[in-house]
């Protein structure tokens, strides 16, 4: 089963999607609408977003691309819900920057409270998986708490969804093809099997530091192939058996309107 | 997460906002891995599992092998509570978006460096007490004129005059609001004394700001 949040017919709805793409609200109402319909506005799929962990340098090839040694310990940073946006929504590119890139990532959504979780029990705490695009404004990197919030925590720079796939419906999250297309051209093509630290490791690691709660999310890092984005570009992040997440880049002026 | 915490949704803290600390670390900050001093506010989150309240115990942290850590430290800050949606506001109008003020204590592992996000040091359960209450903004004439003191077991260990901050309260609200939209009830801890105060198991820690109150917490593990 897949789970999402949408606006449809003026209503904000929590929905389930079955294998025949049939949509049912949590109240049991069946919606007569196709998943690709423009009448659906997709929201980020986690209803009560908690702590969003993101991994830096978690794919050996990406670490090499950025001229770093692969880390011996996870490089974890935290993003906040202000960054979240949904499928087919927009993200903005700040004015006067040189380099903004996407990062297609597998997201593990925590479903159960836990502390000091052992690796062999870790999957019991994962409710499901989704896809995010963890945008970064590379111009703003400074060597303090790097990657700092100015690079990673801007509004709209974490598209997520469109839906969460139940954990039991994903046979092996550690062996999924991951691709990114920019304006129809594949720029990123990797596999979650290349992660340095896999989901069970990360659940164990984080839960030794702190209590994990339902609605917390772990974005697990990205493989090589990041390229610059410009307003007008469309980027689609896909992880097989999970979902495809489409985002359009707009200018700062278009995004903020009156507040520009 | 502790029930009835005063934080709504987000607690963002400003590191390295003590001028004397920046001066003391100037040499270090010109070397690797930093290479140059920060040009922007250095920010970190205390996530929701850290939020705690006045009068409550703060857990003594464990190492990865499950034994008690050998050292913890505390800093305290003025907490600025946002009153309405704050997106890309100027420094001149920034204080108009403040609903009130409170105190934030930040219990952590000792700060060893500022290069990578300090998840291990900063994200400890119950390590961010906030309180004892939110005093209305109009009761504080000038937030930058306040002093934050820390007493441990009734002995004063630290006094940080916010006049010594590299960036003022208004400047921080403005700068942060250009990075992220702030919502009502979200809190910014604007600055901590550079020298964190060492604490031990069982210590009673009081963070005080005149006109805002005293936030009292006890370390667990004794």
UniProtKB/TrEMBL annotation, chain A:
Q: Which Pfam families match?
A: FAA_hydrolase
Superkingdom of origin organism:
Bacteria
> Which InterPro entries does the UniProt entry name for this protein?
Fumarylacetoacetase-like_C, Fumarylacetoacetase_C_sf, HPA_isomer/decarb_C
Has keyword Cell cycle? no
Under the heading Gene3D superfamilies, the entry gives: Fumarylacetoacetase-like, C-terminal domain
A Gene Ontology biological process annotation?
A: 4-hydroxyphenylacetate catabolic process
Q: What does this protein do?
A: Decarboxylates OPET (5-oxo-pent-3-ene-1,2,5-tricarboxylic acid) into HHDD (2-hydroxy-hept-2,4-diene-1,7-dioate) and isomerizes it to OHED (2-oxo-hept-3-ene-1,7-dioate).
Provide the family line: Belongs to the FAH family.
Q: Which PANTHER family match?
A: 4-HYDROXYPHENYLACETATE CATABOLISM PROTEIN (PTHR11820:SF114), ACYLPYRUVASE (PTHR11820)
The protein here is known as: 2-hydroxyhepta-2,4-diene-1,7-dioate isomerase
Q: Which organism is it from?
A: Marinobacter panjinensis
UniProtKB/TrEMBL annotation, chain B:
Q: Which GO terms describe its molecular function?
A: 5-carboxymethyl-2-hydroxymuconate delta-isomerase activity; 5-oxopent-3-ene-1,2,5-tricarboxylate decarboxylase activity; metal ion binding
Record-annotated membrane-spanning stretches:
none
| Residue stretches making up the Fumarylacetoacetase-like C-terminal domain | 10-219
Q: Which UniProt keywords apply?
A: Metal-binding
**What is the top-level taxon of the source organism?**
Bacteria
Q: Which InterPro entries does this entry report, sorted A to Z?
A: Fumarylacetoacetase-like_C, Fumarylacetoacetase_C_sf, HPA_isomer/decarb_N
Query: Which parts form a coiled-coil structure per UniProt?
Result: none
Looking up Gene3D superfamilies in the UniProt record yields:
Fumarylacetoacetase-like, C-terminal domain (3.90.850.10)
UniProt xrefs under NCBIfam families: HpaG-N-term
Q: What is this protein called?
A: 5-carboxymethyl-2-oxo-hex-3-ene-1,7-dioate decarboxylase
Organism, by scientific name, is: Marinobacter panjinensis
